[in-house]
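task queued by scheduler; priority normal; single chain, no ligands, no partner chains; default sampling; output format set to structure tokens
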Amino acid sequence: MSTLHAVTVLGHDRPGIIAETTGRLAGLGLNLEDSTMTLLRGHFAMMLLCAGETPAAEIESALAPLTDDGTLTVTVREVPQESGGTARGSSWVLTVHGGDRPGIVSSVVGRVADAGGNITDLTTRLAGDLYLVVAEIDLPAEADVDAVTAAIREAAAELGVGAQAVGHRGGDEPRGDTVGGDVPRRHLAGEGFGHHDEGGFAGAVGDGAAGADDAGDAGDVDDDAAFANGEGFAGGAGGLKGAF
């Protein structure tokens, strides 16, 4: 019977980690279903969900050579099969940006949690003294969007940072579909945010030297959505990518 396993790989970055890990999993006949990988302050961090009939102990044994030099840690854990379900309500991308200080993430996303919102993806980056947060959020249909954005605005003001959200109403629309001039924009503070037309959101947080396209032209932002001095986030069809 096919089972689902979560594989995590953490440690010192070097070329070839992804190739070696996925090659060994493929050699066991496992199918890679979902994965995410990033560098966290120079440390390699990856999680994979793979399905197959291979038991956890055999997966661990196959991946053990990755840890031979002591620079990587690998864990394997069986996890239950779960349906992603269909979101009902509204989907948003929230950006927060400003001077670095403790508590930015917890304070802002706490307001989202208070409204019953679910964060489905979170990326943070520290670039010099500038701290950036990009969070993908699903709000329930019954959520008062105006109240949520007001709460986020209040939290951002208390922290002395900028926050803004862009999204669309109507859970019946697939997430990431093109939304034209009727995109409900919540410019809470700071600079602009642009919408991408290839299955995701695109935006950049800059220093105010350039702004986002007008909501009516939201679908025209291309993959190079860039702001004046290159300090920002841009989300394309596959997710979020940072440029510093």
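post-processing summary
- The longest helix spans residues 145-159.
- DSSP finds four helices and eleven strands in the chain.
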